[in-house]
Amino acid sequence: MIIVDSNQMRFVLPHSPALKLFSAVARRAGHTLAITDVVFREIVRQNHEELTSATNGYLRARRTLNELLAPPQRVQGTPRIPEDGLNRKNFIRREVKRFEADIRADFLVLPTSSEDALAALMMEADHTEPGLNGTGARDASIWLTAARAAATCERDSAGRRLPVIFVSSDGDFTAPGKSRDLAPQLANDATRKGHLILKSTVVDAMDAFGYPQQLVDAEEVTQRDAFQRVLIDVATDVTDLPSRHLEKMAEAEVTVRFVSGQKGRRCSGDGTTLTTVSGTWSIRFVFERLPRRFGSYGSAPYRGLSMQIEGTALIVEERDKEAVIEFAPQMISVAGRDSRVL
Length: 342
Description:
This protein is of the alpha/beta class.
């Protein structure tokens, strides 16, 4: 069984090419794809929020466009959604229900037992990993549900026991620093026997059950124009910057640089290639170049804004199709001020 946390679910949502490859490879190895009921509720809530925001944004943009057009040219509905289908509450409710059904069709939803739910609250109250700092009952309940699933086993076609692979990039499950290893405090009989394994990304999970992968230079990924555009969009979306800064950033000279991280990983199959890279990138927005002072050295002075963003990117490439790039941020620093992205 492969249990996917919400931070990795965004990469393998229903109908995505990444899920198509991931599920095919898992099925061949004998694994069932699963999420916990807590993760299910979380991603449904996220879908509702994102769908509401996107629908409201579309309706606002359409209203603004129609104000600029003569009546015969005004936009009514969309090619796929008739005007009467755009009633916001009904439309969003219907689409969220469809999303829920699609998730249940692709993933087994594991219930959290009442025993594990209570234990998770106790872990949070006691500041026991992964419920540190008075928070984390969510993480604890997911981990305990994964550990309970490891008590029963799936077997491959040869009858060999398969481990439960828990896929999460949440730092609460890993050892301190940049390690991808399981936090020592979370070790139990299942992890020591190899019945429960932690992997950071879906590509790492595929490697765990024998699917071949290659190492990729993160610099090569960073130099892609499409990747830089996604990184810049994510950085500006998740930061609460004044509108005057956003206007300047839209016109600025931008430099993206890979600061630190690990080698990327890539795997291919069924006409699809997945590439994942985790690390830290710097983004520099130059609003204005300033004259160099007499006798000064180093880089030319400028007026602008600098950012650093840490996270994981997944690039999905299919034959004869434009690459799909997703980036999940974990930490962002604007002008040296850090904030964790949840």
